[in-house]
Amino acid sequence: MAVNLKDQFFLDPDITFLNHGSFGACAKPVYEDLLNWQMQMEREPVKFFEDTIFDALKKSRQVLGNYINCPADDLVYFPNPTTAINAAARSLKLEPGDEVLSTNHIYGALDRTWKYICNKNEAEFVKADIPFPIQSKDEFLNCFFKAVTSKTRVIFLSHITSMTAMIFPVEEVVEFSRDNNILSIIDGAHVPGHIPLDILTLSPDIYTGACHKWMCTPKGTSFLYVKKELQENIHPLVVSWGWESENPGVSKFLDWHEWQGTRDMSAFLTIPAAVKFMDDNDWLNVGGKCSEMVIHTRNKLLNYLNISHPCPDDWLGQMASIPLPHNDAVEIKNLLLNKYHIQVPVFTWKGKVYLRYSIQAYNSESDLEKLFSAVKELLG
Fold first, then answer.
1. What's the mean pLDDT when you consider all of the chain?
2. pLDDT category, 244, cuts 50, 70, 90?
3. Which pLDDT does position 302 carry in this prediction?
4. 3-class DSSP assignment, residue 106
5. Distance CA 299, CA 309 (A)
6. Can you tell me the distance from the alpha carbon of 377 to that of 227, in angstroms, rounded to the nearest whole number?
7. Closest by alpha carbon to 100, among 168, 144, 156, 179?
8. Hey, where are the domains in the chain?
9. Which CATH number does the domain 31-278 belong to among 3.40.50.2000, 3.40.640.10, 3.50.50.60, 3.20.20.140?
10. Which residue, 113, 54, 21, is CA-closest to 355?
Protein backbone atom coordinates (compact mmCIF):
# COMPACT_ATOMS: atom_id res chain seq x y z
CA MET A 1 0.00 0.00 0.00
CA ALA A 2 1.42 3.39 -0.96
CA VAL A 3 0.44 5.08 2.29
CA ASN A 4 0.18 3.23 5.59
CA LEU A 5 -2.00 4.93 8.19
CA LYS A 6 -0.91 2.88 11.18
CA ASP A 7 0.02 5.97 13.17
CA GLN A 8 -3.60 7.16 12.89
CA PHE A 9 -4.85 4.30 15.09
CA PHE A 10 -4.32 3.23 18.71
CA LEU A 11 -3.59 -0.43 18.02
CA ASP A 12 -0.96 -2.29 20.04
CA PRO A 13 2.26 -2.19 17.97
CA ASP A 14 3.28 -5.59 19.33
CA ILE A 15 0.24 -7.27 17.78
CA THR A 16 -0.33 -7.88 14.07
CA PHE A 17 -4.00 -6.98 13.95
CA LEU A 18 -5.82 -8.87 11.20
CA ASN A 19 -9.31 -8.75 12.69
CA HIS A 20 -10.72 -5.37 11.75
CA GLY A 21 -13.98 -7.02 10.75
CA SER A 22 -15.09 -8.01 14.24
CA PHE A 23 -15.14 -4.68 16.08
CA GLY A 24 -13.25 -2.25 13.88
CA ALA A 25 -10.67 0.21 15.16
CA CYS A 26 -11.34 3.89 15.77
CA ALA A 27 -9.17 6.43 13.97
CA LYS A 28 -7.42 8.93 16.24
CA PRO A 29 -9.01 12.09 14.77
CA VAL A 30 -12.45 10.50 15.12
CA TYR A 31 -11.76 9.47 18.70
CA GLU A 32 -10.63 13.01 19.49
CA ASP A 33 -13.96 14.24 18.12
CA LEU A 34 -15.73 11.79 20.43
CA LEU A 35 -13.87 13.23 23.43
CA ASN A 36 -14.82 16.76 22.40
CA TRP A 37 -18.51 15.82 22.31
CA GLN A 38 -18.25 14.06 25.66
CA MET A 39 -16.57 17.11 27.18
CA GLN A 40 -19.43 19.30 25.96
CA MET A 41 -21.87 16.87 27.53
CA GLU A 42 -20.11 16.86 30.89
CA ARG A 43 -19.44 20.62 31.06
CA GLU A 44 -23.07 21.57 30.47
CA PRO A 45 -25.28 18.47 30.67
CA VAL A 46 -28.64 20.27 30.64
CA LYS A 47 -27.81 22.36 27.59
CA PHE A 48 -26.36 19.32 25.84
CA PHE A 49 -29.38 17.07 26.33
CA GLU A 50 -32.07 19.71 25.92
CA ASP A 51 -30.59 21.63 23.01
CA THR A 52 -27.24 20.62 21.51
CA ILE A 53 -27.89 16.93 20.95
CA PHE A 54 -30.84 17.28 18.57
CA ASP A 55 -29.15 19.65 16.13
CA ALA A 56 -25.95 17.62 16.33
CA LEU A 57 -27.80 14.36 15.59
CA LYS A 58 -29.54 16.00 12.64
CA LYS A 59 -26.23 17.20 11.19
CA SER A 60 -24.70 13.77 11.73
CA ARG A 61 -27.59 12.03 9.98
CA GLN A 62 -27.33 14.50 7.09
CA VAL A 63 -23.65 13.67 6.60
CA LEU A 64 -24.35 9.93 6.81
CA GLY A 65 -27.30 10.29 4.43
CA ASN A 66 -25.08 12.03 1.89
CA TYR A 67 -22.45 9.33 2.30
CA ILE A 68 -24.81 6.37 1.70
CA ASN A 69 -27.28 8.33 -0.50
CA CYS A 70 -30.56 8.43 1.36
CA PRO A 71 -32.65 11.10 3.12
CA ALA A 72 -31.31 11.92 6.57
CA ASP A 73 -34.77 11.63 8.14
CA ASP A 74 -35.02 8.01 6.98
CA LEU A 75 -32.10 7.11 9.26
CA VAL A 76 -31.94 6.58 12.99
CA TYR A 77 -28.92 5.58 15.07
CA PHE A 78 -28.58 2.36 17.03
CA PRO A 79 -25.58 1.00 18.95
CA ASN A 80 -25.22 -2.01 16.64
CA PRO A 81 -26.98 -3.78 13.76
CA THR A 82 -28.23 -6.56 16.05
CA THR A 83 -30.24 -4.05 18.09
CA ALA A 84 -31.47 -2.34 14.93
CA ILE A 85 -32.68 -5.62 13.42
CA ASN A 86 -34.37 -6.52 16.69
CA ALA A 87 -36.37 -3.30 16.47
CA ALA A 88 -37.49 -4.18 12.95
CA ALA A 89 -38.07 -7.91 13.52
CA ARG A 90 -40.08 -7.45 16.71
CA SER A 91 -42.37 -5.04 14.86
CA LEU A 92 -43.37 -7.46 12.12
CA LYS A 93 -46.92 -8.85 12.08
CA LEU A 94 -46.13 -12.43 11.20
CA GLU A 95 -48.94 -14.98 11.09
CA PRO A 96 -48.68 -18.71 11.88
CA GLY A 97 -47.14 -20.45 8.87
CA ASP A 98 -45.52 -17.31 7.42
CA GLU A 99 -41.91 -17.76 6.36
CA VAL A 100 -38.81 -15.61 6.89
CA LEU A 101 -36.12 -16.56 4.39
CA SER A 102 -32.39 -16.09 4.95
CA THR A 103 -29.29 -18.21 4.23
CA ASN A 104 -27.04 -20.60 6.09
CA HIS A 105 -24.39 -17.81 6.07
CA ILE A 106 -26.41 -15.60 8.43
CA TYR A 107 -24.59 -13.92 11.32
CA GLY A 108 -25.04 -15.98 14.49
CA ALA A 109 -26.65 -13.29 16.65
CA LEU A 110 -29.28 -12.58 14.02
CA ASP A 111 -29.85 -16.26 13.39
CA ARG A 112 -30.94 -16.38 17.02
CA THR A 113 -33.03 -13.22 16.64
CA TRP A 114 -35.05 -14.66 13.76
CA LYS A 115 -35.47 -18.04 15.44
CA TYR A 116 -36.87 -16.24 18.48
CA ILE A 117 -39.22 -14.03 16.45
CA CYS A 118 -40.48 -16.90 14.32
CA ASN A 119 -41.00 -19.21 17.30
CA LYS A 120 -42.93 -16.49 19.11
CA ASN A 121 -45.24 -15.96 16.11
CA GLU A 122 -45.48 -19.62 15.05
CA ALA A 123 -43.80 -18.65 11.79
CA GLU A 124 -41.08 -20.61 9.98
CA PHE A 125 -37.46 -19.51 9.73
CA VAL A 126 -36.03 -20.90 6.50
CA LYS A 127 -32.34 -20.82 5.57
CA ALA A 128 -31.43 -21.38 1.94
CA ASP A 129 -28.40 -23.63 1.64
CA ILE A 130 -25.78 -21.56 -0.18
CA PRO A 131 -22.77 -23.73 -1.01
CA PHE A 132 -19.24 -22.79 -0.03
CA PRO A 133 -17.30 -23.05 -2.29
CA ILE A 134 -19.57 -21.24 -4.75
CA GLN A 135 -18.68 -20.39 -8.33
CA SER A 136 -21.04 -17.69 -9.60
CA LYS A 137 -23.85 -15.25 -8.99
CA ASP A 138 -26.22 -17.48 -10.94
CA GLU A 139 -25.42 -20.39 -8.64
CA PHE A 140 -26.26 -18.24 -5.63
CA LEU A 141 -29.52 -16.93 -7.09
CA ASN A 142 -30.67 -20.37 -8.16
CA CYS A 143 -30.04 -21.79 -4.69
CA PHE A 144 -31.65 -18.85 -2.95
CA PHE A 145 -34.76 -18.45 -5.06
CA LYS A 146 -35.50 -22.19 -4.87
CA ALA A 147 -36.23 -21.62 -1.19
CA VAL A 148 -38.89 -18.95 -1.86
CA THR A 149 -42.48 -20.16 -1.44
CA SER A 150 -45.95 -18.64 -1.50
CA LYS A 151 -45.57 -18.25 2.29
CA THR A 152 -42.37 -16.16 2.16
CA ARG A 153 -43.16 -12.82 3.80
CA VAL A 154 -39.67 -11.53 4.64
CA ILE A 155 -36.27 -11.92 3.01
CA PHE A 156 -33.36 -11.22 5.33
CA LEU A 157 -29.95 -11.24 3.65
CA SER A 158 -26.40 -10.37 4.63
CA HIS A 159 -24.86 -7.88 2.20
CA ILE A 160 -21.40 -9.11 3.25
CA THR A 161 -21.35 -12.33 5.23
CA SER A 162 -19.58 -12.45 8.56
CA MET A 163 -18.27 -16.02 8.63
CA THR A 164 -17.45 -16.49 4.95
CA ALA A 165 -16.67 -12.84 4.07
CA MET A 166 -18.56 -12.91 0.76
CA ILE A 167 -20.34 -10.01 -0.93
CA PHE A 168 -23.77 -11.38 -1.81
CA PRO A 169 -25.74 -10.18 -4.88
CA VAL A 170 -28.23 -8.15 -2.87
CA GLU A 171 -29.32 -6.01 -5.82
CA GLU A 172 -31.01 -8.95 -7.55
CA VAL A 173 -32.54 -10.21 -4.32
CA VAL A 174 -33.99 -6.81 -3.37
CA GLU A 175 -35.42 -6.39 -6.87
CA PHE A 176 -37.01 -9.85 -6.65
CA SER A 177 -38.47 -9.01 -3.24
CA ARG A 178 -39.96 -5.79 -4.54
CA ASP A 179 -41.46 -7.50 -7.61
CA ASN A 180 -43.01 -10.22 -5.44
CA ASN A 181 -44.31 -8.06 -2.59
CA ILE A 182 -41.88 -9.56 -0.06
CA LEU A 183 -40.35 -7.36 2.64
CA SER A 184 -36.58 -7.00 2.14
CA ILE A 185 -34.33 -6.51 5.16
CA ILE A 186 -30.59 -6.27 4.51
CA ASP A 187 -27.86 -6.72 7.10
CA GLY A 188 -25.07 -4.42 5.93
CA ALA A 189 -23.01 -4.58 9.11
CA HIS A 190 -19.78 -4.88 7.09
CA VAL A 191 -20.66 -2.50 4.26
CA PRO A 192 -20.36 1.25 5.13
CA GLY A 193 -16.78 2.36 4.54
CA HIS A 194 -15.93 -1.06 3.08
CA ILE A 195 -17.66 -1.16 -0.30
CA PRO A 196 -19.77 1.57 -1.98
CA LEU A 197 -23.33 1.80 -0.66
CA ASP A 198 -26.16 3.61 -2.45
CA ILE A 199 -29.38 3.09 -0.49
CA LEU A 200 -31.73 4.83 -2.91
CA THR A 201 -30.43 2.86 -5.88
CA LEU A 202 -30.52 -0.45 -3.98
CA SER A 203 -33.97 0.47 -2.58
CA PRO A 204 -34.35 -2.10 0.22
CA ASP A 205 -37.29 -1.80 2.57
CA ILE A 206 -35.01 -1.91 5.61
CA TYR A 207 -31.20 -1.73 5.84
CA THR A 208 -28.82 -1.63 8.76
CA GLY A 209 -25.10 -0.93 8.80
CA ALA A 210 -22.32 -0.56 11.36
CA CYS A 211 -20.17 2.56 11.26
CA HIS A 212 -17.76 1.38 13.96
CA LYS A 213 -16.34 -1.30 11.68
CA TRP A 214 -15.10 0.00 8.33
CA MET A 215 -15.88 3.71 8.84
CA CYS A 216 -13.63 3.61 11.93
CA THR A 217 -15.98 5.42 14.30
CA PRO A 218 -16.13 4.71 18.05
CA LYS A 219 -17.78 1.47 19.12
CA GLY A 220 -21.56 1.52 19.32
CA THR A 221 -22.28 3.50 16.14
CA SER A 222 -24.74 1.95 13.69
CA PHE A 223 -27.83 2.99 11.76
CA LEU A 224 -31.22 1.72 10.69
CA TYR A 225 -32.73 2.86 7.39
CA VAL A 226 -36.44 2.32 6.80
CA LYS A 227 -38.45 3.38 3.76
CA LYS A 228 -40.67 6.28 4.66
CA GLU A 229 -43.94 4.44 4.04
CA LEU A 230 -42.91 1.69 6.48
CA GLN A 231 -41.47 3.78 9.29
CA GLU A 232 -44.52 3.91 11.53
CA ASN A 233 -44.62 0.12 11.46
CA ILE A 234 -41.28 -0.05 13.30
CA HIS A 235 -42.05 0.21 16.99
CA PRO A 236 -39.51 1.42 19.54
CA LEU A 237 -37.60 -1.12 21.63
CA VAL A 238 -37.62 1.46 24.43
CA VAL A 239 -40.74 3.59 24.95
CA SER A 240 -39.74 7.01 26.21
CA TRP A 241 -40.52 10.71 25.73
CA GLY A 242 -40.66 10.38 21.96
CA TRP A 243 -43.81 8.24 22.16
CA GLU A 244 -46.80 10.61 21.93
CA SER A 245 -44.25 13.42 22.11
CA GLU A 246 -45.33 16.80 23.49
CA ASN A 247 -42.92 18.40 21.00
CA PRO A 248 -43.16 16.26 17.86
CA GLY A 249 -40.30 16.33 15.41
CA VAL A 250 -40.33 15.69 11.69
CA SER A 251 -41.57 12.10 12.09
CA LYS A 252 -42.73 9.55 14.62
CA PHE A 253 -39.89 7.34 13.37
CA LEU A 254 -37.29 9.74 14.72
CA ASP A 255 -39.31 10.64 17.83
CA TRP A 256 -39.80 7.01 18.78
CA HIS A 257 -36.27 5.73 18.22
CA GLU A 258 -33.89 8.66 18.69
CA TRP A 259 -34.61 9.41 22.33
CA GLN A 260 -34.38 6.33 24.56
CA GLY A 261 -33.73 7.97 27.89
CA THR A 262 -30.46 9.42 29.15
CA ARG A 263 -27.53 7.84 27.35
CA ASP A 264 -24.25 8.92 25.83
CA MET A 265 -24.92 9.48 22.13
CA SER A 266 -21.55 11.12 21.48
CA ALA A 267 -20.40 8.26 19.24
CA PHE A 268 -23.29 8.98 16.86
CA LEU A 269 -22.06 12.55 16.51
CA THR A 270 -18.64 11.53 15.20
CA ILE A 271 -19.95 10.56 11.74
CA PRO A 272 -18.91 13.91 10.17
CA ALA A 273 -15.39 13.49 11.55
CA ALA A 274 -15.27 9.90 10.26
CA VAL A 275 -16.40 10.89 6.76
CA LYS A 276 -13.81 13.69 6.74
CA PHE A 277 -11.11 11.24 7.82
CA MET A 278 -12.05 8.90 4.97
CA ASP A 279 -12.17 11.75 2.45
CA ASP A 280 -8.81 13.12 3.62
CA ASN A 281 -7.21 9.71 3.17
CA ASP A 282 -8.68 8.71 -0.21
CA TRP A 283 -10.69 5.85 1.30
CA LEU A 284 -11.75 4.25 -1.98
CA ASN A 285 -8.10 3.91 -2.95
CA VAL A 286 -7.23 2.60 0.51
CA GLY A 287 -9.97 -0.01 0.26
CA GLY A 288 -8.88 -1.01 -3.23
CA LYS A 289 -5.30 -1.56 -2.09
CA CYS A 290 -6.49 -3.57 0.92
CA SER A 291 -8.68 -5.73 -1.30
CA GLU A 292 -5.74 -6.43 -3.62
CA MET A 293 -3.65 -7.57 -0.66
CA VAL A 294 -6.47 -9.73 0.69
CA ILE A 295 -6.96 -11.51 -2.64
CA HIS A 296 -3.21 -11.95 -3.22
CA THR A 297 -2.79 -13.53 0.21
CA ARG A 298 -5.89 -15.69 -0.19
CA ASN A 299 -4.61 -17.10 -3.44
CA LYS A 300 -1.18 -17.79 -1.91
CA LEU A 301 -2.78 -19.64 1.00
CA LEU A 302 -5.14 -21.61 -1.23
CA ASN A 303 -2.29 -22.62 -3.52
CA TYR A 304 -0.15 -23.67 -0.59
CA LEU A 305 -3.00 -25.67 0.95
CA ASN A 306 -4.02 -27.07 -2.45
CA ILE A 307 -7.61 -25.90 -1.95
CA SER A 308 -9.92 -24.64 -4.70
CA HIS A 309 -11.18 -21.07 -4.57
CA PRO A 310 -14.22 -20.82 -2.24
CA CYS A 311 -15.67 -17.92 -4.24
CA PRO A 312 -14.76 -15.57 -7.12
CA ASP A 313 -12.23 -12.83 -6.36
CA ASP A 314 -14.77 -10.08 -7.01
CA TRP A 315 -16.96 -11.40 -4.16
CA LEU A 316 -14.34 -10.19 -1.68
CA GLY A 317 -13.58 -6.82 -0.15
CA GLN A 318 -11.08 -6.35 2.66
CA MET A 319 -11.52 -9.74 4.28
CA ALA A 320 -11.47 -13.40 3.32
CA SER A 321 -12.14 -16.78 4.94
CA ILE A 322 -9.83 -19.72 4.29
CA PRO A 323 -10.60 -23.36 5.18
CA LEU A 324 -7.78 -24.96 7.17
CA PRO A 325 -6.92 -28.68 7.23
CA HIS A 326 -7.08 -28.83 11.02
CA ASN A 327 -9.70 -29.93 13.54
CA ASP A 328 -9.02 -27.58 16.47
CA ALA A 329 -9.90 -23.94 15.80
CA VAL A 330 -9.14 -22.82 19.35
CA GLU A 331 -5.65 -24.30 19.26
CA ILE A 332 -4.77 -22.58 15.98
CA LYS A 333 -6.21 -19.24 17.13
CA ASN A 334 -4.30 -19.35 20.42
CA LEU A 335 -1.04 -20.34 18.72
CA LEU A 336 -1.35 -17.52 16.20
CA LEU A 337 -1.89 -15.05 19.03
CA ASN A 338 0.46 -16.33 21.70
CA LYS A 339 3.33 -17.60 19.53
CA TYR A 340 3.17 -15.28 16.52
CA HIS A 341 1.35 -12.27 18.05
CA ILE A 342 -1.26 -12.30 15.28
CA GLN A 343 -4.83 -11.37 16.25
CA VAL A 344 -7.08 -13.18 13.78
CA PRO A 345 -10.29 -15.21 14.24
CA VAL A 346 -10.23 -18.98 13.70
CA PHE A 347 -13.54 -20.77 14.10
CA THR A 348 -15.55 -23.84 13.18
CA TRP A 349 -18.35 -23.41 10.63
CA LYS A 350 -20.32 -26.32 9.20
CA GLY A 351 -17.86 -28.82 10.63
CA LYS A 352 -14.75 -27.22 9.12
CA VAL A 353 -12.12 -24.92 10.59
CA TYR A 354 -11.80 -21.49 8.96
CA LEU A 355 -9.42 -18.58 9.34
CA ARG A 356 -10.89 -15.16 8.50
CA TYR A 357 -8.49 -12.27 8.12
CA SER A 358 -9.63 -8.68 7.59
CA ILE A 359 -7.43 -5.65 7.04
CA GLN A 360 -7.68 -1.89 7.08
CA ALA A 361 -5.61 1.18 6.26
CA TYR A 362 -3.11 0.42 9.04
CA ASN A 363 -2.10 -2.96 7.61
CA SER A 364 0.77 -3.67 5.22
CA GLU A 365 1.89 -6.49 2.96
CA SER A 366 4.36 -7.55 5.64
CA ASP A 367 1.44 -8.20 8.04
CA LEU A 368 -0.09 -10.64 5.61
CA GLU A 369 3.24 -12.22 4.82
CA LYS A 370 3.66 -12.84 8.54
CA LEU A 371 0.26 -14.60 8.59
CA PHE A 372 1.18 -16.72 5.57
CA SER A 373 4.49 -17.78 7.12
CA ALA A 374 2.81 -18.62 10.44
CA VAL A 375 0.14 -20.78 8.77
CA LYS A 376 2.81 -22.61 6.78
CA GLU A 377 4.80 -23.31 9.93
CA LEU A 378 1.77 -24.42 11.96
CA LEU A 379 0.33 -26.71 9.31
CA GLY A 380 3.66 -28.06 8.15
1. 96
2. confident
3. 97
4. coil
5. 8
6. 51
7. 156
8. 6-26+282-379, 31-278
9. 3.40.640.10
10. 21
